[in-house]
Amino acid sequence: MTGEPAPLAIDGELDLHNFSPKEVGRLVREYIEVCHDRGIVELRIIHGKGKGVLRRTVHAILGRHPAVESFRLGGHGEGSWGATMVTLRRGPDGRDGEGEGP
Questions:
Q1: Measured CA angle at 19 (ends 56, 45), to 5 deg
Q2: Domain map of the chain by residue range?
Q3: Facing residues of 86 across strands?
Q4: pTM of the prediction?
Q5: Hey, which of 18, 37, 58, 93 has its CA 20 to 30 A from 100?
Q6: Are 67 and 36 in contact (CB under 8 A)?
Q7: Burial call 63-82: b when 16+ CB within 10 Å, e when fewer
Q8: What pLDDT digit, counting tens, does each position of 13-70 carry?
């Protein structure tokens, strides 16, 4: 074992169970950016049910992120309150409409 992190699948589902709380903020922001750049607009972030610390952290990040259109707790079959479903904004080029102008 080399201690190197395994590559993270960019498929719209991010499971935070294997990450330390210190990594979560940066990880969630970067994952949103990569998904947005790739045109993945429906995400599921799995934070677990526990005491709700990770859920609150994730929701605070989502509430401030400009690429996030909306988010809600998962429903039946989506992970319930142990997961958050996220919809990212769409732009004409798959981005948020922000970027370099002429």
A1: 50
A2: 10-42
A3: 43, 71
A4: 0.82
A5: 58
A6: yes
A7: eebebbeebeebeeeebeeb
A8: 999 999 998 999 999 999 999 999 999 999 999 999 999 999 999 999 999 999 999 9
